[in-house]
Amino acid sequence: MAEKLVIMMVNTDPANGEEMGAPIFQATVAAAMEYEVEVICTATSGKLLKKGVAENLYVKPGSGKSVYDFIKDAHDAGVKFFCCSPNLDLFDMTEDDLIPECEGIVGGAYVIERVMEDDDTRMLTY
Predict the structure, then answer these.
(1) Does the global pTM surpass 0.90?
(2) What are phi and psi of 60, to 5 degrees?
(3) Most Cβ neighbours (<10 Å): which of 20, 56, 75, 113?
(4) Strand-pair partners of 40
């Protein structure tokens, strides 16, 4: 049985807060089930890890809980968030612009290696 889960957020657009709920919630549930969980934000989803973005997004309008609150809950459960390296240039960010819950920056080789060489890892994409 797989022990690790990688969630790739590549097609989820932070402009639509409701798209953020499922992948972050599923990451939290998997971590609570004691799986090792990583969320890698790339393409447009990379904006989510920039300070000030997730704090102003809501899965449900009028909710008192921001997407950033969900990210903090997931992180507290053990989920590790990573930013894909091209996002820094794409969105004019530096490492200092990333939220504290972001564990670091990874590149395409990291993702390919996890999928192709680690039999204990499963991947979901959003």
Answers:
(1) yes
(2) -130, 120
(3) 20
(4) 8, 82
